[in-house]
Write a structure and sequence with these properties.
Number of strands: 5
CATH architecture of the largest domain: 3-Layer(aba) Sandwich
Structural class: alpha/beta
Distance between the termini: 17 Å
Shape: globular
CATH superfamily of the largest domain: P-loop containing nucleotide triphosphate hydrolases
Order of helices and strands: EHEHHHHEEHHHEH
Length: 200
C-alpha cells in the first residue's frame, strides 16, 4: 500500500472551492469530496436514509426516497439540536467512506474537499495541511445568487454558520485568493501552488 500525503481543501460557500478541486485533480491529486459522499448517503436508497427516517420521520424523505434537502435545511438552520442529530447520523458514515476512498486512492497526493474543515475538530489530525480558497463575502453572495438563485438573507445565514474568513485564513497552510480571476488565471495560480508542493 502506498503512503498518501493528505491535504484538506476548504472555503466558504461561493468561494470557488469545487473549481479549485477540479484543477488540483488535473494536476494529479485524487479528490475525495465529502459533499459528494454525503449526497450519496442521502440519495434514494442511500445508506443513511433509514436512520434519517427513523430520527426525523417521513417528512424528512422526499417522494423519490432521498432526504428532503429543503425540508431538512430549514430545520437545521432553525434548531442546532436538529443539526447535531443529523450530523450524528452522517458524520460517522462520511468518515468511514472517506477513509475507504483515501486507502483506495491511486495517487500519492490526496485532497479531501471538506466545506466545514475548519469547524470540525477531528479533521486536523487526519491531514498534513490545510488549503483554503478565499474571497470576499460580497463575492460569495454574488456567486451563490447567480448559481442557486437564493435570497441574500438565506446566503448570509449559511455564511454565518460557517467559519469566518479570518478563522479559515488562520488555519491555512496555503491560500488561493479567488477574487476577480478568470478561470485561466485561477488555473495558473492553483497549478503553480500545486507545483510548489510537488503534487503529482
Amino acid at each position: 500500500m502506498q503512503s498518501h500525503t493528505i491535504w484538506g481543501l476548504t472555503g466558504g460557500i461561493g468561494s470557488g472551492k469545487s473549481t479549485v478541486a477540479s484543477i488540483l485533480a488535473s494536476c494529479g491529486a485524487t479528490i475525495v469530496d465529502s459533499d459528494a459522499i454525503s449526497r450519496s448517503l442521502t440519495a434514494a436508497s442511500g445508506a443513511a436514509i433509514p436512520a434519517i427516517r427513523a430520527a426525523f420521520g417521513d417528512a424528512a424523505i422526499d417522494e423519490e426516497g432521498a432526504m428532503n434537502r429543503d425540508w431538512m435545511r430549514a430545520r437545521v438552520f432553525a434548531d442546532p439540536a436538529i443539526k447535531d442529530r443529523l450530523e450524528g447520523i452522517l458524520h460517522p458514515m462520511i468518515g468511514d467512506s472517506t477513509q475507504a476512498a483515501i486507502i483506495a486512492a491511486p495517487t500519492r497526493w490526496v485532497v479531501c474537499d471538506v466545506p466545514l474543515l475548519v469547524e470540525s475538530r477531528h479533521w486536523r489530525s487526519q491531514i498534513q495541511g490545510v488549503w483554503v480558497v478565499d474571497c470576499s463575502i460580497e463575492t460569495q453572495v454574488a456567486r451563490v445568487k447567480a448559481r442557486n438563485q437564493w435570497d441574500e438573507d438565506v446566503i448570509m445565514s449559511v455564511i454565518g454558520k460557517q467559519a469566518s474568513r479570518l478563522q479559515r485564513l488562520r488555519a491555512a497552510d496555503i491560500v488561493t485568493f479567488n477574487e476577480g480571476l478568470s478561470l485561466t488565471e485561477l488555473t495558473q495560480l492553483v497549478t503553480t501552488q500545486s507545483q510548489r508542493l510537488e503534487i503529482r
